[in-house]
Amino acid sequence: MISGQPGIFALGAAAHGFFEFSLRDEAAGVDLIRTIANLRVPHTTVGGANVVVGFRPELWRLHAPIPDDVHGFNDAISGPDGFAMPATQADAFVWFAAAAYDAIFDLGVETLEAVSPCATLVRESSGWSYRHSRDLTGFEDGTANPTLYDAPAVASIETGSAGEGGSILLFQQWRHDSPAWRALDDARQERIIGRTKPESAEFSEETMPPDSHVARTTLREGGAELPIFRRNVPYGHVCEHGTLFIGFAAEQRRLHDMLEQMAGADGGPRDALTRFSTPLTGAYYFCPSVDALAQFVTERT
Ligand code: HEM
User: Fold this and answer.
1) 99 within some domain
2) CB 3.0 to 4.6 Å from 168: which of 94, 122, 203, 252, for a disulfide?
3) Exposed, middle or buried, 211 (CB in 10 Å: 0-12/13-18/19+)?
């Protein structure tokens, strides 16, 4: 059986660390893949953490199968009023999730040391859970997610296709303008999100504002909605904070189309949430199946 990385589906961690690396030399690509595939402790039951790893699609393609149309976040996405989602693609991504930050710290130090001969750290982000599953806007985040029974089919490429069991990850850092957001009353915030704040109940089709976040991230094909699997976490401190968007899909097109709709790059209205939160980074990583990663494991104990 081809399995997606279990960390993608491992919910409930309170502490998160994200590390993005760029190659020192393009020729060292396979060394970077091998080093990350061979990180032993996070893959054992004694590591105290879940791990998800991913690679720039163009890098992974040089060494293993991946669907032809999967690509890095190589160009910014622009929308009306000078809005832009920046492209900050790196070569590799490592995400540790644990009950407390001490495990993330130790694993992060170990990973940096292991990776440093072939790559440099371009970005480190840390995330934490806020009131169980709330975003720092105060809204529940993840309500419309598929359940864990359905998530693997949404997030993982089907068996028999190139890159089977792998997932396409969109990772973006969004900084909130919290003073402006908090100046709005709950009714206005709810129209921006498209759900009620306390119960996260979705607005009806008749009352859903066309520029709400839910309206702009809903994709339909042949009458059916096209879901993704989101694992967003808050980041930052009191003075500067926001959302680390972590979205997985078996088809990159879904993630990309959602971004275009949010930006208003599809000719529709720009997502009202983008008036209160600004994307600072954006990258796509291919998260190979466990079986595909195992091809690069050289040290077994
Ligand atoms: C500042 C960044 C973001 C915040 C704070 C945010 C927050 C939320 C919240 C509160 C909801 C409603 C509850 C839920 O169903 O989870 C939601 C729904 C959703 N968001 Fe986001 N989101 C952000 C960025 C994004 C991005 C970048 C995407 C896609 C690329 C996205 C895709 C979705 C989808 C697909 C839904 C479900 C829509 C539906 O009900 O059909 N979000 N988000």
Assistant:
1) yes
2) 252
3) buried
